[in-house]
Structures are given as C-alpha cells and as structure tokens.
Amino acid sequence: MSAGQSMNVTWHEHKVASADRKKLNGQKSCVIWFTGLSASGKSTIANTVDHKLFALGKRTYILDGDNIRMGLNAGGPMLKERYGDEFATRFGLGFGATDRAENIRRIGEVAKLFADAGIITLTAFISPYRIDRDNVRALFKDGEFIEVLVKASVETCEKRDPKGLYKKARAGEIKNFTGISDPYEEPLKPELVLDSDNKNIDQLADDVIAFLKGKGYLDA
Q: Would you tell me which CATH number, out of the four given (3.40.190.10, 1.10.10.10, 3.40.50.300, 3.40.50.980), belongs to the domain 17-214?
C-alpha cells in the first residue's frame, strides 16, 4: 500500500458500541496475556481457564501460539505450500526477533478486536521481549490488558518438554530458542504471577478466576 492509499483509510465507528456488547455479554472484556517459557504451562492454563469461564456462562476465546502460527502468522514453508514461493518469502514469519515482534503485533491487534466485541480473550504466547508486550498493552484502555507471567524455571520446563524442543535446542537443531539460545525478559509489573513450578493446572486456573472475580471482570 502506498502512502497515498494509506491516507484514505478511515476508521468507521460501529452503531453498536463496545459498552453495549459488554452489557449484553454480562461481563467486562479484557485480554488475559499469558507469557512464559515454552512448556511453562501457558496453553494448558489458558484452556483450563477458558473451560471454567465457559461453565460460568462467560463469553471467551483463546488465541494460542501454535494455532496462530498455523494460519494467520504461518511460517514460510506452510505458506509456500498454500500460496507459492513469492507469497511465502514476503509474508512468512520465522522466529527471529523481527518476526517475533510482528507475530505479537498482529496478535495484539486481533485481541483488541475481540475485546471491542465484549469477549474475554485469552492469549498463550511465549512473547519473550518486554517491548513487544508493552506495545500490545498500549493498544488497550487501562484495565483491559492483564499480563500473566506463568513462572517456571528452565529446569522445570525441560522436564516437561512435551515436544522435545529443549533437547533439540540444546543439540543446536533449533535456533533462536527462548531460554536456551534466545533471552526471555520477564514482565516487570505483571498483573498476576502464576507459580507453575509448585502448583498444578487447576490451582493455577483457579488463581486466574479468583483474580477476575476480585477485579469485577465477570460482572457487566
């Protein structure tokens, strides 16, 4: 898109306001951003919280790292198979710092749309760089972005390692692997810290539910 074209893009206000959607849903919308090392438990906790909120009659959706990487933010090989070499080269996302930043930027924008629709949105991404998470936070109004650090040591994550990724990273088969060959920057002031070293999934999910209830997110 040229500079001239971009200047012709105009934001259209909806006739149904976001506040009305939240009232209809009987809840306050927010984005619960789970961040942490691979195998720390982010996706499992997010899915468990989603299940518990669904049982309470709340409207939720999960944006999961692996799922998004299979579609919206797919890598080159997957896009090459679907759309050809040129498209894959232009739009495929890898795992270097620049592509990770774009991955998180896109997710932040999608999450913002869900929040505008009055949905409690749960995201499960390593999102290792503080600046990328802070940039997403800046998209939201105060109180709409809940940063949750799923805190687990590298040792704990390596013991779990359901995909065998740490072993491959240690062997040099995976480059830019967070916690091994790439850094992970913990949030400085997360809204919630989950002790994934010492608590089970149900306990951690209940901690999230308790936080939401205590802050009034589950009420209109």
A: 3.40.50.300
